[in-house]
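Record filed here:
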Amino acid sequence: MRTEAAAVAAGRRPVAPRRGAADPVKTLMHRHRELCERAVDPLEIAAGLEAHGVTDRTAARFRHRDVFSLAEEMYARVPRDGDTPPLTTPTTIPRPRLDWALLTLLPGALCAATLTGVRLTHGRTCLLVAAAGILAVTLAVRAVLRRGPLSPHSGAHPGPHRTGAWTCWLLGYAALGDGLLRAAVGGGPDGLPDGTADGPWPLAGVPLLTLALACAPAAWSAHLLAVRARRRLDTSRGLEEFAASVQPLLLGTVALFVCALAALDALCAMALGEPGFYGHTLTLGALLFLARLLTVHGFTHAPAVVLGAVGVAEVLAPATVFAGRLPGCGFLATPVESLVSAWGPAGVPSLFCGTAALTLLIHATRTLTRASSHAPTDQPC
């Protein structure tokens, strides 16, 4: 009081005491100014905050029970013309386009043509046909992953992790790995693969053709998940409600794709006259589909680690069988030989791919059920 009185007597205004962070929500609103201004409902702000790492624990520091209640206050405090909030408009949902719908059929068609050419040719011509076919299918798959539902959406922020090399290795093992493992356990192989299913190192065409044809159901399943999730985003009134509604949608989408994969595997086995590789094909297809779903939404670390681990395991499986032929090293081949005798050569990669697919599915139920995974957001100012 004496200080204020002295200041008044001296003709100066009393200096207000510093309040520090008296309004931290206002600071947060300034940091996410563009997000708050363009939001049409509190859930969009909540999704943006979630994408930028704001959790319920962080919201507690702002004296709110969760992120959604914090977003409600931020939405209510945004200044608008005439103090009337804008009308809530449904999220724009991309419709299926004819170009990417036809593009997803191209890998399967090229793979079928390549397998037919390999079976009808011999010697150097067969090698040239196989090399040209592999290049064509690779470019077609690359185009599918760059356009349409299997390409990263505008709100995703992909990291530096890449999975292309391990994906190619897993597909190569699906074609030649089981034959190599069977021959290795039997004391071979006695020669190089000749492109047939009856050679010393047989080629399995069913998994390759099935997975190439599966690009179409994978794209449609990813599109279905995106459409349904964004509709849930319009109707949900909280992050927990959105997660609870999207989780069964995600599981149903994966189950739908696996069913389509099983049907394609049966059709390809009939067309090529080879036995179906249901266990290996289904687990590998589910693994690659989940890895792509996570990559589409910007979660690239887990797919890279999991696919790399499966690739290393598939390298070690035949390597331990060959190492077991060395004097005194027979114990190294015992685990793989036991699996092959119990489940067949396809049981080894099925075990690896199935475990990895289950791991990614659990990870996806925690990440792809976030509102921020399906709502494009900007970086904070």
The chain has a mean pLDDT of 78. The radius of gyration is 28 Å. Residues 239-272 form the longest helix (34 residues).
